[in-house]
Amino acid sequence: MRILVVDKLASFRRRLRGWLVEGGHSSDNVLEASGGLPAMDLLRQEDFNVDAIICEWEQVAVGAADFLKQLRSVPGFAHIGFVAVGGAEPDRIAEAKAAGATEYLAQPLDPELLLRALVEIEKKAIDHRKRVASPTTRWRILTLDQKAPAGTQDGTLTAAAEQELRQGARTVYLNRSEALSLRPGDPLYWLEKGSLDVREVRGEGVVLEYKLGPGQFLGEAPFGGCPFVSLEARSEGECWLSSRDASTVDQLRARHPVLFYSFRNLANERARKFQKPDDKKPLERGLAGEIDSLPIGDLVGILNGAKKTGVLKIETGDATYFLQFTQGALRHAECEGEVGEDVFYRVVLLSKGRFEFMVGPAIEGPVTIALDTRALLIEGLRRRDQRGTRAPKPRPQSEA
């Protein structure tokens, strides 16, 4: 989004520029002018290629009313949003609105109100397709307009984790056939609109080629999925993507361990679904089955003895449990935000449900169990024997 700031005070223009950059706008897309006449000259030089103008309404040197009148007289550019800034007197507001201002904001200016006004202006510009959209704070628009959260197709990404992931996200806009290349350690991306053709190269020469649609993650591997060597995504048409930087995602993963498993699930499922049959070294499939045929305690013993690395996912219909193993050692147990040994003891008592062990390389993840796995298993089996093979009683709602 391109924005023109018009004010006679350079200090105020710098302050506005700072607010806009903090709100996600590129500094390169913020233009400045000291008054109405130089603003019109600048607009002509730029072929009126701006989306919004923020203009001081009361300064005589600016001449905002005449400037707006000239702007509205230019054919084909009525879509340019005009945000007038001035005193809170009703007659001033009425004057600006009558002259054709899109929005009037009273001093002292609230940065959040300004950013909201720009969101509404950009939405109208996109709706009317007056120009090709560009990278901006599009996550704000999508937060308002799009109800389905990203990455929740398998139900493992909690609302709290999704909210923190989305808040403060940056956006990337791709034209048709434009490509985005990623390497390990790059930001995490997810697709908001459009579709992508992806070519992902993993270790040992494994190549995956697949499509992604809205709500699906791109480049989640370093944060919990299967590592990749390189990844290229090419847009089939207009695409909007949101992203968070890698360090922030790692911090979020530490606060919300379920992110680790959500990313791993996506990466494993993608590999199994899209892997070519002629790949020389196919990815290993893990054990899968029903708890009533292979109790969890016995399964944990098998994984421990075989020194397996990966994640055991257990679904009961009411809850999803995750157990993380590294070289056979159980390092983490999680269910609906609860973590640690008590979660494991509940899992051992389950009598119904489906499990799947997702084999994967050792990836840094949460560690909430320090007890030796054999000692943990002995205690869990003791508790199971005491209560038989009955499923545990449902937890009180306050503990969920």
Describe the protein in words.
The protein has helices spanning 10-22, 36-45, 64-72, 90-99, 111-128, 138-145, 159-166, 246-255, 258-274, 296-305, 341-348, 373-387; strands at 3-6, 30-33, 52-56, 81-86, 103-106, 170-174, 179-182, 188-193, 196-202, 207-212, 217-218, 228-235, 239-244, 288-290, 310-315, 320-326, 329-335, 338-339, 354-359. 37% of the residues are buried. The strands form 4 sheets. A 6-stranded antiparallel beta sheet has the order 14-19-15-16-17-18, sandwiched between helices. Helix content is 34%, strand content 24%. By secondary structure, it is α+β, with helices and mostly antiparallel strands. The longest helix has 18 residues, at 111-128. α2 runs parallel beside α3 (64-72) and α10 (296-305) runs antiparallel to α12. The protein folds into 3 domains: 3-133, Rossmann fold; 159-274, Sandwich (Jelly Rolls), CATH 2.60.120; 288-399, no CATH class.
Which structural category do the helix and sheet elements fall into?
alpha+beta
DSSP strand count: 19
- Per CATH, the superfamily of the largest domain is Response regulator
Q: What is the beta-strand fraction?
A: 15-25%
Choose one word for the global shape.
elongated
Q: What is the number of independent domains?
A: 3
- The CATH class label of the largest domain is Alpha Beta
The CATH topology of the largest domain is given as: Rossmann fold
**Regions with pLDDT < 50 over 5+ consecutive residues?**
129-155, 396-400
| Strands side by side in the biggest sheet | 14-19-15-16-17-18
Q: How would you state the average pLDDT, rounded?
A: 80
End-to-end CA span: 43 Å
* Secondary-structure arrangement, i.e. CATH architecture of the largest domain: 3-Layer(aba) Sandwich
